[in-house]
Write a structure and sequence with these properties.
heterodimer, A: 143 residues, alpha+beta, five-stranded antiparallel β-sheet, elongated, B: 79 residues, five-stranded mixed β-sheet, 24% helix
Chain lengths: 143, 79
């Protein structure tokens, strides 16, 4: 079972949840990141996610392994790539553990570290026809 | 020596290609980045980015070897 995966099509969250079922677990926490219709005052029409696949898989797998070790839980994460519409699921994190505290904390750890460390980029396409790579305003300054 | 560079996201768009290879004398990632930033008009200094050599995060000043694969990593925005 892959701890971290990239998916270029919709994610079957039910199968993922079932893969974390365990009679020794009393708590399950999941986080879903969805495509929002606005960002920093601009109306978003759709998103594009692009990954650096080899390193994203390695770093994403490290993040989930760290959470499992640190919080003694079972966990998985899947991140979408490609074109997404408003309302689509962009990222899914699931954690099962003996107790709820560890499950919540591990879930939070995974999504925060994924956003900070894993080489995946988001391009927002706005309703006014413009588009921009998020977090990279300075990168585009001379383009 | 020959270095392979692969581009993603905004740098892929600004370079107008998914990758290229360069024939160089001894070099480090920061030297290669400065050369390519000049050529393609990449705006940010290397300190705004991270770099990967052969699919692992690397130091900007690590010496490169023949056949190394280099990826410059703009600020990420997953999730």
């Amino acid at each position: 079972m892959k701890r971290f995966a990239l998916a270029d099509r919709p994610v079957d969250t039910r199968a993922l949840r079932e893969s974390l079922a365990d009679p020794g677990c009393g708590g399950y926490a999941a986080f879903e990141g969805w495509v929002r219709d606005h960002n920093e005052g601009r109306r978003v029409r759709r998103l594009e996610y692009e990954a650096y696949p080899d390193l994203a898989l390695a770093e994403g797998t490290r993040v989930v392994a760290e959470a499992m070790e640190r919080f003694s839980v079972n966990a998985r994460c899947v991140h979408r790539t490609g074109d997404l519409a408003v309302g689509d699921l962009a990222v899914w994190v699931g954690v099962s553990g003996a107790h709820r505290d560890e499950a919540f904390q591990a879930c939070r750890y995974i999504i925060d570290e994924i956003k900070r460390r894993v080489p995946i980029w988001k391009k927002e396409h706005y309703t006014d026809g413009t588009a921009e790579w998020v977090n990279c305003v300075a990168c585009a300054a001379h383009s | 020596m020959r270095i392979e560079i692969e581009y993603f996201a905004i740098l892929r768009e600004q370079a107008g290609q998914a990758g290229e290879s360069l024939e160089l004398d001894a070099a480090t990632p920061v030297e290669v980045y400065r050369l390519l930033a000049e050529r393609h008009g990449f705006a940010p200094g290397h300190d705004r980015l991270r770099v990967a050599v052969n699919d692992a995060f690397a130091d900007w000043h690590t010496p490169l070897a023949d056949g190394d694969r280099l990826v410059f990593i703009p600020p990420v925005a997953g999730g």
